Amino acid sequence: MENKKQKDSIHKGENHENNHHHGGIFGGNTELIFSLLCGALLGIGYLISITKDNVSLISITLYVIAYFFGGFFTIKEAISSIKKGKFEIDFLMILAAIGAAFLGEWAEGALLLFLFSAGHALEHFAMNRARNSISALADIAPRTAIVRIGKDQKEVPIEDLTVGDIVIVKPNSKISADGVVVKGKSSVNQAPITGESMPVDKIPISNPDNISEKNLPSESRVFSGTINGTDTLEVKVLKEANDSTLSRLIKLVKETESQKSPTQLFTDRFEKYFVPAILILVFLLLFAFLVLDETFSESFYRAMAVLVAASPCALAISTPSAVLSGVARAARGGVLIKGGLPLENLGELKAIAFDKTGTLTEGKPKLNKIVTVNNVSEEELLLTTIAVEKLSDHPLAAAIVKGGVEKLGNRPIEEADSLKAVTGRGVTAQLNNETIYIGNRSLFEEHLSISLPDDLSNSLNELESNGNTAMIVKKEEMFLGIIGLMDIPKEEAESVIKSLRKYGIKRMIMITGDNQRVADSIAKLIGIKEAWGGLLPEDKVKAINDLKETEKKVAMVGDGVNDAPAMAKSSVGIAMGAAGSDVALETADIALMADNLNDLPFAINLSRKSKSIIKQNLWISLGVTAFLIPATLFGFTGIGLAVLIHEGSTILVVFNALRLLALKK
To answer: Annotated active-site positions, please?
Structure first.
């Protein structure tokens, strides 16, 4: 039932600080309606008062009722704050309204409560828009699943699913559990989890009875909450509902609201000293009539006006609103940012370290180069090589066969036999009663004591210097050519590196366990100037520490498993392809749910925009307070105008923050 609890937690909220939504007789709109009633009663009372020579009993009665509607939720929140030992803005507003009534300024007190309650109602409405972007995650998962039991089918709540169940997913319906496709082919919209814009083709796993989640192919893995295409799928459940990627994502996104950014911590410290100082000033102003030629009523009014002017309402909401909007927009785009700290740190980055394998490259060898000699055709070289490598279970053999078949199309492949492996060097086999040799340089020069022809040796050196793993092919006494394999860069890698430079990332380093020659070749292909090869996991940690000595903040981008120690040491740990990876979700400060580098510039751009909006909001809120305190102290503005300016600035900073929700990817 964990999934349901997480939904309830998101929708209800856990404390005043995280949820300003108020229920009541008018549902979620009660606070706004109460505020409008306050304004209406204030207006009617004021109209009645100006038609008579003095304020009538009817006007005062209307003002008192306006006080009730305008102050209802303000008093509730003030009491809630006092119980926690805090004296916040709500308490100060109530004091100011009571003070106005004490002076007989009923209309001004009612105006104060109307503007304050209306401002808060609109502020809460705007903030809930950001929260709704997050809470919508809880509505992604279906409530029930169709389980195959023998030849029968049964609909059950997703909470009742167990690992190993076979779930039937009908066309155009939501997938109910994290699992693996065991039957059927379809395209799946994974945008709710990974943010991918295009549907992803899914095929059945080849060995459904022997599934290893660590090596689960992406084309067979599916996630709870994603949307099936036009064909029926049968999915074997790998995770229960409370442990699914979606469930963990909801939990982690929810936790981000309670994690404060450096700017939030600054404003908290500021308010801690600022509010008591203002209360002391207000107390002293109450006795200004003792030294100034004015009445106690005038001193009291000035003190109340300063109290309102100095209330840091916009300051308190300026940073949380921007952080919440930024995190919500990121989650909608398939990027999980765990709170305000990584959101702000990401925007300050000048240096990023990348793991190579699986981050900048595809993470698996692919057929990359074909070199022929002795007038042998490329087709003959491939047909011979594939016939032999089909018999091998080596990962390089599988890559050769896959790439070769793609190039040859439907050409028939002859059957080889008598495969023999030469450990660390290559293989031999028989094809049409001829011996075929496929292997590295040492197979021929050391094991077979054969010298390589100069042209073949030169081609081999060139391929290896460019980062290829090269396999020489020989039939009986004649060399046929060389097959080059390589973990090639991702298509988007080069453009992403260029985009990051545009966003101000001045230094980018690739760190990898591969040898320096391979590291240099990949770095050259994608436009990275620094490549550090031959690094073990502990060496990567040292590399991050060395970078932090010269660069203020450094991000580490990796797969979240082998790179976890280095990610933990970095200023911001960024995990690639985190969907379905528990380690990546737990380790990283920022998780790119899809295995797509293009999400990184989006995340950095979002962070920079968030940082900019946070600064704008701070200047607005502090600027308004700095203007209003002397303005009310010297009598240039009264309580009503001070509240109007304050609440206007509060709404301004919130809606300024909500602009982040519209940021394009």
So the answer is: 355
Nearest to 194, CA basis, from 327, 6, 330, 353: 330
Q: Give, as one character, the DSSP assignment of residue 213.
A: G
Q: What is the dihedral of CA 96, 321, 119, 625, to 10 degrees?
A: 40
Cα–Cα distance for residue pair 373/382, rounded to 1 Å: 13
Q: DSSP letters of 355-397?
A: EIIIIIB-SS-EEEEEEE-TT--HHHHHHHHHHHHTT---HHH
Place of tokens 């007789």: 25
Least Cα distance to 275 among 14, 87, 44 occurs for 87
CA distance 103 to 583: 63
Neighbours of 299 (CB within 10 A): 19
C-alpha to C-alpha distance for 406 and 408, rounded to whole angstroms: 6
Other beta carbons within 10 Å of 582: 15
Average pLDDT over every residue of 379-403: 90
The answer for residues whose C-beta is within 8 angstroms of residue 218's C-beta and 6 or more apart is: 200, 595
Please identify which residue in the block is written with the tokens 């169940």: 165
pLDDT tens-digit series, residues 634-648: 888 877 788 778 778
The answer to whether 518 and 405 have CB atoms below 8 angstroms apart is: no
pLDDT digits (tens, 9 = 90+) for 281-334: 888 998 988 988 888 888 888 888 888 787 767 777 778 778 888 888 888 888
Name the pLDDT band for 8 (thresholds 50, 70, 90): very low
Alpha-carbon gap, residue 317 to 323, rounded angstroms: 10
Contact 269, 246 (CB under 8 A): no
| C-alpha pair distances (Å), 115 with each of 74, 120, 352 | 12, 8, 47
B/e letters for 531-560, b = 16+ CB within 10 Å, e = fewer, are: bbbebeeeebbebbeebeeebebbbbbbbb
Give the C-alpha separation, 154 to 235, whole Å.
Answer: 14
Query: Which H or E element spans position 37?
Result: helix 30-50
Provide the pLDDT for residue 252.
64
Q: What is the mean pLDDT of residues 34-40?
A: 87
The answer to whether 33 touches 26, Cβ cutoff 8 Å, is yes
Q: How far is CA 29 from CA 20, 25, 36, 130, 385, in A?
A: 12, 9, 11, 17, 72
Q: Are 639 and 108 in contact (CB under 8 A)?
A: yes
What whole-number distance in Å separates Cα of residue 193 and Cα of residue 593?
A: 7
pTM of the shown model: 0.69
Tens of pLDDT, residues 250-281: 666 666 555 666 777 777 777 777 778 888 88
Average of per-residue pLDDT values in the chain: 82
Gap between the Cα atoms of 275 and 298, Å rounded: 23
Q: What is the pLDDT of residues 551-589, one digit of tens each?
A: 888 999 987 556 777 888 888 989 887 655 666 667 778
